Amino acid sequence: MEPRAEEVPRKTKILQALEDQNTSVSFEDPLENDMILNMGPQHPATHGVLRLLLRLDGETVIGCVPEIGYLHRGYEKLAENCTYHEFIPHTDRLDYLSPMSNNTAYAIAVEKLLDIEAPARAQYIRVMISELARISSHLMFLGSLAMDVGALTVWMWAFREREKQYDLFENIAGARFTTSYTRIGGLAQDVTAETLAMVKTFIDELPGHIVECEKLLNTNRIFLERTDGIGIITRDQAIDLGLTGPGLRACGIGHDLRRTNPYLVYSNLDFDVPVYEGGDALARYYVRMAEMRESVKIIHQVLDKMPAGEVHAFKPKKVLPRKERVYTKMEELIHDFMLVNFGVNPPVGEIYSAVEAPKGELGFYIYSSGEGHPWRMKIRSPSFVNLQSLPTMIMGCMISDVVAIIGSLDPVMGEADK
Amino acid sequence: MGLEHALGDSFLTTKIDLAINWCRKNSLWPMPMGISCCAIEMMAFAGPRFDVARFGSEVFRFSPRQSDVMIVAGTTTFKMAKVVRKIYDQMPDPKWVIAMGACTSSGGMYRTYSVVQGIDQFLPVDVYVAGCPPRPDNLLNALIKLQEKVQRGESKGSFPAYVGGSKLDQPQALPTISG
Amino acid sequence: MKAVIIDKLKARFGEQTIDVSEFRSELTIVVPKDRIVEICRFLKEDPDLNFDLLADVCGIDMNTPVKRFGVIYNLYSLTTKYRLRLKIFTEEEEPKVPTVTSVWGTANWHERETFDMFGIVFEGHPDLRRVYMPEDFEYHPLRKDFPLMGIPGSIPLPKNK
User: Fold this and answer.
1) Distance CA B12, CA B7 (A)
2) Which residues of C sit within 8 Å Cβ distance of B?
3) Which CATH number fits domain B2-151: 3.90.1700.10, 3.30.430.20, 3.30.70.20, 3.40.50.12280?
4) Is 0.95 topped by the overall pTM?
5) Chain A residues near residue C135 by CB distance under 8 angstroms
6) Which of A109, A115, C89, C95 could form an S-S bond across to A364 if both were Cys, CB 3.0 to 4.6 Å?
7) pLDDT tens digits for B23-51?
């Protein structure tokens, strides 16, 4: 019986997009109906507020449309109204699993625009905190992937290590989590020798703890069957879709911005870039575990090579002066007033600066019109682009694999939604 | 619950009420509405160091039908507000809400076009936690304050008709935004 | 590397079509909007240039009466490790730009975001919907005439019963 015209429900655009998708996957199945399932924004395993509309043929996924935007906080419009310094706390909340890394990326971008360089000690400390942030993010990935697949113990152990890192960050920057530690032209304050000793103790013990977690997972038949061969993406698809970070390195392409376009002092440091073939969830897991070990190596070298010196560049009209000089000297007081109220005034121009964040390539495109606040700031967030490759990875898998694939891709919605 | 309605105010029911509220407060199962950065501190709150299981919140039920308290952790945008309200409506009475962090209490550092300036514009909130993000100890403090509230039998959102609830805790008419 | 790119583009597309500028050792090329797809395809497929990774597509509102909106493409080459920026401009009434999803698949979501934030319509895009704001939102937030605090009532809130 034909439904009457007013009974046909109005289709939203997103449902139309799901039904229009080319399903190149075909199955011989006596039941002809396929089901539309909503893995809604509130779901234990979607790593934040990600909505997936799945078209299922039984248990197999034949169409997928991700919907994001549930955490869109308007960063880019906010950046047009904040001075460059005022935006630093906002960068913490982008990839909120590794806030120090975003702080560093933003500081590098603005310093490129202003054509100033942070002193050597500040650069080494920035490398150290970026690598600590990378370890923190990958530990969270380890815990989440294991928990999604079923191993809750690994999550608890990963969080135990993360708590030790939070103690470190508290010592370095004053806050556990959203640190806002870098400044334009340097850092907020110097690290003490006691903190560096704590860092050394932490990274001496870390490889042992990683081995403990690996003992539970690497030869575990359940883990291997749930991740091996699941969520495959080929080399050409990965480059075409703009996948960067561990996802790209798991497809056999050794692209790492720390090696290809070195920034800070990475050109003086000796480390490997782990590359695995396969493009499946297990390869992404191996890449991240190896990256944690490389980060430990990098921090060892940084601790040995760190020079003594200032952590603020001396550029009076562009870098915020030290507080003790602001309170005692006239010039610094005036500069402080001008910089805080009107902002650093870069020349007219535009730059794009990218670093290798734990999730991929984090880029800042800043167009400056000469004022204290940017005219346009675009944040190229890796999770936004990585999520685009999710439908390609999911096609043809079963619905319980969707959880493992999202876990291996490791998106962070704060970054994807800006 | 039916017993309390039937017997009305008396010595026996206030004692039962105290006992029931004591049981409720020591086994509050949270539903974590983890949206953004505060969710990570909420996970730390459930993690090994600031263990919340010793306060009775043994399991974090992701299903609203099986939980008592909803901890809204993270910036709520207008697009997400509809979803949060839907989940809140699916929770059975008695229910409580903890607004975790600056973003849920008042919009936080985001005074923009897409962020709701405080979830109390569409949800009745019992405890507000300050911080960006609040330390897990702060959230434990909030949970203890909520437990004291449960012991007194107060709840902003659930029906107040059960015996022991104060008349002041009728769901208040919150100011609506015009337009 | 820079000279190679400029010479090849000028040889293939003519001196007048491209307008080169440089700032902080980064090359920016302004091209006419009708030829963007063929220029992108040339940059991707040429064996010496090989710009195979599209890092970013963004829009910009210059707030000028003529040529108000711009679209900026940030390209990267995995083989030569070089970055390049392409810019096109379009008018305020009926801003329409051809899509580059046929050259790089990653442009799909980036162009959807530019449409959502600025209202620039990409012709030929397979699925042009909003990505951040709700589907029925009427405005384009990143335009300079949209206020930061939003327009009250533009997105409905659930009622507090």
Assistant:
1) 9
2) 132-134, 141, 146-160
3) 3.40.50.12280
4) no
5) 12-14
6) A109
7) 888 888 998 888 888 888 888 888 888 88
